[in-house]
């Protein structure tokens, strides 16, 4: 997410790093949901819906369908191992970096403060 000079034309017409972060998170969640749905279909086809993997996929789908990142799904160790190979992007920790002026490095600025929230 980049906070740029107000004089630079943004694709959405205005500079809003919070909106941009939300859009990126939505795109990542949709990609994860597509992957979870695809794997759920295969698991059901193989009649393993009651397996630990099936249970984990159900939990993940519920969270993702609720517009939350996959990291919010509460999985036990066994379920975590079962879905690890999916490499879900919203299951990973998220780091935001804001592009600010040198004078704002220590304290941030109005835009970076909004992003922190």
Structural class: mainly alpha
How large is the count of helical segments? 4
Order of helices and strands: HHHH
The outline comes out as elongated
Helix content: 40-55%
Number of strands: 0
* Distance N to C terminus: 14 Å
Radius of gyration: 18 Å
Q: State the major sheet.
A: none
What ranges have pLDDT less than 50 throughout 5 or more consecutive residues? none
Average predicted local confidence, pLDDT: 85
**Beta-strand percentage range:** under 5%
Nutshell version of this structure?
By secondary structure, the protein is mainly alpha-helical.
Question: Can you describe what's shown?
Answer:
49% of the residues lie in helices and 0% in strands. The mean pLDDT is 85. The relative contact order is 0.17. By secondary structure, it is mainly alpha-helical. Helix 1 (17-45) runs antiparallel to helix 2 and helix 2 (52-65) packs across helix 3 (77-83).
């Amino acid at each position: 997410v980049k906070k740029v000079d107000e004089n630079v034309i943004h694709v959405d017409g205005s500079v809003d790093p919070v909106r941009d972060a939300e859009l990126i998170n939505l795109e990542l969640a949709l990609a994860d949901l597509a992957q979870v749905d695809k794997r759920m279909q295969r698991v059901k086809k193989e009649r393993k819906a009651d397996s630990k993997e099936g249970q984990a996929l159900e939990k993940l789908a519920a969270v993702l369908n609720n517009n939350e990142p996959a990291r919010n799904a509460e999985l036990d160790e066994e379920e975590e191992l079962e879905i690890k190979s999916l490499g879900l992007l919203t299951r990973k920790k998220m780091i935001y970096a804001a592009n600010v002026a040198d004078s704002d490095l220590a304290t941030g600025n109005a835009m970076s403060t909004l992003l922190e929230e």
